[in-house]
Amino acid sequence: xxxxxxxxxxxPPLALPFPETLIRAGLSGFPSPAQDYEGRxxxxxxxxxxxxxxxxxxxxxxxxxxxxxxxxYPGDILVVDRSIDPRPGHILAALVDGEVIxxxxxxxxxxxxxxxxxxxxxxxxxxxxxxxxxxVVRSVIHExxx
Length: 146
Description:
Elements: E1 5-6, E2 15-17, E3 41-43, H1 44-48, E4 55-59, E5 77-81, E6 91-96, E7 99-108, E8 111-115, E9 124-125, E10 131-141
Antiparallel strand pairs: 1-4, 2-3, 4-5, 5-10, 6-7, 6-10, 7-8, 8-9
């Protein structure tokens, strides 16, 4: 993981075009050419950053496969909110034994663990290791190569 990159306390608005047209992952025919473009916009700061003063960004820099099942890939940017109380099922950014990692928080047999999305990696029991939770991952920004 890369070092922390804090979000701006009051990010400037950046409204980008966001047409009303919906998109499907499967085949469904063609949209009507008469569909109006209504000039809607979307501000990703508003959409992805709920609490700017408690939000920071991290970049996944390893080349491993431990979180691929959860849609987290090397190079992805994580939007992390430190104001959220972690609950089972949340993806966390944490400092474990001096290493910053991203894992899913789970209860296994009523014990807390940090788990990978790959069964080849053993869950990390909390309480047996030194762990400092930095925050809950709210979003993952994944870019496709072009």
